[in-house]
Design a protein that fits this description.
Elements (H helix, E strand, L loop, with lengths): L4 H43 L6 H25 L7 H5 L2 H33 L11 H4 L1 H23 L2 H4 L6
Helix pairs in contact: 1-2, 1-6, 2-6, 4-6
Membrane topology: Multi-pass membrane protein
Subunit structure: The complex comprises the extracytoplasmic solute receptor protein and the two transmembrane proteins.
Family: Belongs to the TRAP transporter small permease family.
Length: 176
């Protein structure tokens, strides 16, 4: 069967979102490795050489924040977030779709609210820098902004998929 233009477009969007989310995960993995090296360097520096690296704590904190947020889009795209599904599984099948739509709307609202909050915060704090390394705040928080923008798009696509009924056809994990 030849895919329609709409199916082809959905495939391109899904592939693009998957690629972007996987790129975030790869970057998060590299940051995890860097964070481990930084922490080990701090431990060795303090205990063996009696000398600390004050900048390493700040960079490790950046890595930790970025890791958490950069993994969120991929988990959302694949429906792999931790979920308590006892109540949805007790619902009749016809209500599960609506429950899934409400969940996607709540995730969409969360991403939008966090982006708006970051906009308000960075509107005042973008010109300041971190104390030790002097990383501008807009750089420090950029992984969060990128991840939440991606989450916003992914949640919108998942919501549209659930409401249109395509979620059960395309991906079983879209509905509980």
């Amino acid at each position: 069967m030849i895919p329609t233009d709409e199916e082809h477009a959905r495939g391109i969007v899904a592939g693009s979102l998957e690629g972007a989310a996987v790129a975030c995960r790869v970057f998060a993995t590299l940051l995890l490795a860097l964070m481990c090296v930084l922490i080990m360097g701090q431990v060795v520096g303090r205990n063996v050489f009696n000398s600390g690296m004050p900048w390493a704590d700040e960079l490790a904190r950046f890595c930790g924040v970025a890791i958490v947020f950069l993994c969120v889009p991929l988990l959302a795209l694949r429906g792999q977030h931790i979920a308590v599904d006892m109540v949805p599984m007790m619902l009749p099948v016809r209500f599960r779709r609506w429950q899934a739509a409400v969940v996607e709307l709540l995730v969409l609202a969360f991403a939008g609210l966090l982006l708006w909050s970051l906009y308000a915060f960075l509107g005042r704090a973008w010109k300041f820098a971190t104390p030790t390394l002097g990383i501008p705040n807009w750089v420090f928080y950029s992984p969060v902004v990128v991840a939440m923008l991606l989450l916003l798009v992914i949640s919108g696509v998942r919501f549209a998929s659930v409401v249109s009924g395509r979620a059960t056809e395309a991906r079983k994990e879209m509905l509980p």
